[in-house]
Amino acid sequence: VRLVESGGDSVQPGGSLRLSCEVSGISYETCMGWFRQAPGKVREGVAGIERDGSTTYGSSVQGRFTVTKDSAKNTLYLQMNSLKPEDTAMYYCVATNTTVPDVWLLLGHMYDWWGQGTQVTVPS
Question: Cβ distance 115 to 4 under 8 Å?
Answer without folding.
Answer: yes
